[in-house]
């Protein structure tokens, strides 16, 4: 008698099964919209595993109601252990050749999984994952702004330490065997009270030994709202610093320039997070470290502050609210009707361009040292 996995593989022999893992904690506000975006994928060879991470609201009930009309949806319930443990539970329970992660408040464009599977399935096994670009959306599924346009493909470890191409936890599709081989997601960050950048930790563990592909279209609606994990700026800043510290310690083969560049980029990210959290002491300590490697950064900060002052003066006498509201403009919804945006040219300063070229050379040198697998043989 065929197992469930064998039966699915037989039915979809030319379409590998994709396991969608959705960690959910008190997600009843958004989980229905998130699940609808998953079940409406043009790629239908899916199993959708929702891991109810000890929710105290109606998350489980909402999922059960939707699962009653779609047999691909499965609900697992665990005590609250954090997003990393919830994702690991989903990976272990999955049967697919590929695993895609979807946060319980984010949305997917209907073509996301199909385009990612088509991109990764044609590549050899040392290409471990594929990511896509995203839009920032609000509580009403409206597009607030596009996310980053920066992309890189192939061996990108040194560059990813600096640019953090993937951008959010709902953009990645990975080979299941690779996700297991690198140990899944690290729950120790949440245990230490600095959870928030587990996605980045997982991506760096992928990027250090493997190649990564990209679909350069905005196929994810990444929701930012006051209750989201990314809104805890203090925790995000501390988490990013620790993730990069651990990654560099685990990869001592990087040259000094790449290590210094990664530390500098992460300290700048942490500075902005600490500043938004209004932690003056942490901000000052971080900027002190930045100035030792980039003295021009403080000049740039002063110019930015002056510019914001000028903009504030120009806005005096106008109504409050953003420009779109003042002009009566309506934001587009992130839904199945919006055309996926293709790649725009990223905003690069000459200095950043030079740094990325140098880091690309580092990546090329490191990948050549990985041996035949990294060179496609």
Description of the structure:
This protein is of the alpha/beta class and 377 residues long. It has 15 helices and ten strands. The protein has helices at 4-11, 31-39, 59-67, 83-93, 112-121, 157-163, 176-181, 188-191, 198-207, 233-250, 256-276, 280-293, 296-315, 323-326, 350-369; strands at residues 18-24, 46-53, 73-78, 98-101, 107-108, 127-137, 143-146, 172-175, 211-223, 341-342. Strands 1, 2, 3, 4, 5, 6, 7, 8, 9 and 10 form a ten-stranded mixed beta sheet that branches. Helix 10 packs antiparallel against helix 11 and helix 11 packs antiparallel against helix 12. The relative contact order is 0.12.
Key words describing this protein structure:
377 residues; alpha/beta; ten-stranded mixed sheet; 45% helix; 16% strand; globular
Question: Any chance you could write out the topology, listing elements then pairs?
Answer:
Layout lengths: L3 H8 L6 E7 L6 H9 L6 E8 L5 H9 L5 E6 L4 H11 L4 E4 L5 E2 L3 H10 L5 E11 L5 E4 L10 H7 L8 E4 H6 L6 H4 L6 H10 L3 E13 L9 H18 L5 H21 L3 H14 L2 H20 L7 H4 L14 E2 L7 H20 L8
